[in-house]
Design a protein that fits this description.
With 336 residues, this protein is α/β, with parallel strands linked by helices. The chain has three domains: 96 residues, Winged helix-like DNA-binding domain superfamily/Winged helix DNA-binding domain (Arc Repressor Mutant, subunit A, Orthogonal Bundle), CATH 1.10.10.10; 98 residues, Periplasmic binding protein-like II (D-Maltodextrin-Binding Protein, domain 2), CATH 3.40.190.10; 99 residues, D-Maltodextrin-Binding Protein, domain 2, CATH 3.40.190.290. It is built from ten helices and 14 strands. The protein has a five-stranded mixed β-sheet with strand order 4-3-5-14-6, covered by helices on one side. A three-stranded antiparallel β-sheet has the order 12-7-13. It is rod-shaped and about 105 Å long. Pfam families: HTH_1 (PF00126), LysR_substrate (PF03466). One of its GO terms (biological process) is DNA-templated transcription. Belongs to the LysR transcriptional regulatory family. This is Transcriptional regulator, LysR-family. GO terms for molecular function: DNA-binding transcription factor activity; sequence-specific DNA binding.
Amino acid sequence: MSQSDLSQPAFSAGLPDRAASLSNCLATSYAGIIAFMAVATEGSFSKAGERLGIGRSSVSRSVQRLEQHLKTRLFLRTTRATSLTREGERFFKHCHIGVSHIAGAVNDMLELRSGPPRGLLRVSSGIGFGRNVVAPLLLQFSEAYPDISVELLLNDRPVDFAGDRIDVAFQDGRLKDSCVVAKQLVPMQMVVCASPAYADARGLPATLDELGQHDCINMTCSSGRVLEWEFMVQGQVRTFLPSSKLTFNDAYLVRQAVLDGRGIAQVSAHQVRDCLRRGELVTALTQYAAKDRGHYICYLSREHLPARVRVFVDYMTAQIRALDLNAVQRPGVGEC
């Protein structure tokens, strides 16, 4: 045979035929193989029927159809005993290997569902929330569940659970995808903040109309669109898109520019909570903070949830709810 005969295209071309042959074989003989294995294991057609929950005659018919399909006699039957022919012994040996593999695969799936948590977990999160909240908790989680490997993927794109094979995703804001299970961890607070130096030099806005008088720092989302600032006014969401000399596509850079006194920005509270507690930033317009956003942990379905996903969701829910993600500065400079 030449090297070209062993090429990948030639090998691949045969795969559909092999798959069709396997499908036809199973469709024809699956019930017969199950009946055959039961009779060979139990030693009689009656006991095989009891094990399978069907009548003796049904077992006999299934085995007969299998023998016709194989054109081979598998059992020697007398009024006193049932035994395997030599061909039956050979067939049982090969079938036993396959059944053992199938039983092992079934047990493995059951163990993933109800056994000790183990396996690979692919987790997705927005960049800011992933860095500030999720990643610091992973070390403790790994120590508690050493048999679970976690792969954390950080990006601000919409989550593609199927395409990216994501098990669990952390999402912020308002969720519109009803195809996923979304559990709110904590409300998501958006705060307008500035450095004390900026507040001393320029003051802070006391009303939304005063935002236009300040140096605002904007942020773009993954699509390149500049994110609007959102506020709650008399129960209605009001958006504002200020002009800006500085615009970034990374929340860390926005925060750093605010810390450097370059202007004011609206950011997620978890991005600046430590800075607020240390007095490195001050807040404004807190009376207009929108209250319809949240931080969510999401997965595709509650049914047949693997143990590794279940313990991760429970662990992260408890740990994140224990954090004070929405803490704002105590009353002081710039508070409204």
